[in-house]
Amino acid sequence: RDGMEIKKSDDFGEWFSQLVTKTEMIEFYDVSGCYILRPWSFAMWETIREYFDAEIKKLGVQNAYFPLFVSKKRLTTEEDHIEGFAAEVAWVTKSGKKDLEEPIAVRPTSETIMYPAYSKWIRSYRDLPLKLNQWSNVVRWEFKYPTPFIRSREFLWQEGHTAFATKEEADVEVLQILNLYRSVYEDLLAVPVIRGRKSDKEKFAGGLYTTTIEGFIPTNGRAIQAATSHCLGQNFSRMFKIEYEIGDNKKQFVWQNSWGLTTRSIGVMAMVHSDDKGLVLPPRIAPIQVVVVPILRKGMEKMVRDAAEELEQELQKDGIRVKADLRDDKNPGWKFNYWELKGVPLRLELGPRDIEGGSVMATKRVDGEKSMFERAKVCETVKTTLESIHKSTFEKARIARDEKIVRVDKWADFVPALDKRTMVLAPWCEQTPCEEDVKDRSGEESQQRLGEEGEVDKKALSGSAKTLCIPFEEELSRLGVEKIGEDAKCFACAEKATAYTLWGRSY
Ligand SMILES: O=C1CCCN[C@@H]1CCCn1cnc2ccccc2c1=O
Question: Which residues contact 87 (CB under 8 A, 6 or more apart)?
């Protein structure tokens, strides 16, 4: 009843839905695509927020708060920014029984809300750089299949919006923020991501270029955009007249960036690490890192309970997020299952014999490994064990991801590789018509293959491929891929290939 009833590899969608509800991360809600974030997952968002907020403040970013609503006139200031997104905008059209004069949109993102104010605030180069961020919710009335954390109609995020005098400053910050996003995923959530640039077709249409961190869900072979950092160039500053005096009455448009990370990050972490017994939480994001379970014996209950509380106090004082489960209506076995389901990284058991012998039995959630800790050194041992759990959790995910990255140089190998739930790294010409063509051909071909294979291979993933990113140099070398050769040919159109590009099916 309380435990997981579905295997991750049998029915991924159902497994995930059970995972987020049985672990008390999510409660479902009667507005489609909206979810209740319960304390177990909200604590994770708070940890992400504390970490990222402290880091951007070191970069001189200040937090502010802008209105939730935006007028139609404002939102559609420049159609090419909104084009393609209009269908997702949610509108307020009435108050009570009365129609509003003008429909008001609920913010899907805040460029058009913030930038008129930027235009007012930035007059001279002394007003630059302007670096503001807001932690808020946004609404995008998506129609694709809603999934907790991954795709919801309201989600929490931070959106940074910065303005600089020069392109050089903007280019530097775009990458500083992207590296912070990588750190949130890899150092907090133990999820490996690949940094790169979006193709012209996939970039934010209103911007100059988009950098991204791409995640991967090995179970269903889908890639997922984990966070983005855009350089907007001067596109928005021209649109919103954000300019500054450069002396003798001459003006210059500012160079802008905008960057965002959302609660999707929690869903990616849960999908990547969790198993058939429930959540597997990396220690740095776990709301509770250690649970102490007393093994009570008749007549010695008080002694053992006190020892468990003492151990809890000691670990707490040492900065560990620890909980002693002293509930007297549950037996140890029940408690083991409960905290295993919740994904607590480390369980300590304390029985009469352990107390006599000055030892504590420890069990790691990530691999079930058991060991005896010396009671006298328990704080130190717990800390080093939690560090090693983070590393092994990351390594496990990195290996599972890397073995699903396949090198392809010719078209014939492309769809067969994708159908094995992989990401494909291929030399590409970077031309949009070619990207459109790959999208169409890969969609058709995978449908045919599904037919031909006869037995509908449940494991086969169908659908068309898109570019995920053009990995940065250092990412290619991390993947053991050399720089692209002068005479390399595009895998799809045989024109000159200018970059190795990561392709895949994505959320
Ligand atoms: O990614 C980010 C990071 C945070 C700040 N905004 C940028 C770009 C958002 C692109 N976008 C995404 N969905 C939308 C949906 C409706 C209207 C407009 C948009 C829209 O402009």
Answer: 141, 143
